[in-house]
Fold:
Amino acid sequence: MRRADRLFQIVQLMRGGRLVTARKLAEKLEISDRTVYRDIRDLQASGVPIDGEAGVGYVLRHGFELPPLMFSRGEIEAIVLGTRMVEAWGGAQLADSAREALKKIGAVLPADLRERVERTHLYAPGYRVPDAIRRRIDRLNDAIRGQQVAAIDYRREDGGASQRRIRPLGLYFWGGVWTVVAWCELRLDFRSFRIDRMDRLEVLDERFPSDPEKSLRAFLSRMSAG
Structure:
């Protein structure tokens, strides 16, 4: 968890004016007591009205609110729909992150705007995305971040099968189908692979070096050139 997210969560857990011990905060956030003490000191130094001391507990004074976020109706609908689309069609980790992001936004919205979030009637049903595809999306996303080579067993559109070693570069959603753009070590060129046609996906403990000629930017440049 990023430190900024952790500080936000500490404030959220202390809302309501109840005494909260450092041990309880540490258990909730899965961090050490020492980290809680340091974060509390930093929050106090930044002006957050927290009273208490180590070994006793802490209280967030009544009346403290995080600065409100202001959005127009259209912006709220765009945020909610975007979040619901990620939740419906993205990987499992992305879906969880989308839900948490919407909770954080709702927590700092004024009451009237919070009601708009709850009343937004825009949805993205996700029943067509099997759990296996969601897990592959997450694994490929991690591989892109970590610059890790992946090995796949792939079924082509004509029914033929092949085994490939790829360097995953980017994930694209086409309104029902996810593809991964990659540098294919067999073809020595860029290729796009449909995730639902992968019979096997293994992310290897092998990193590939950054190479401007085999990067996502190079792929996009080639596509734009026609």
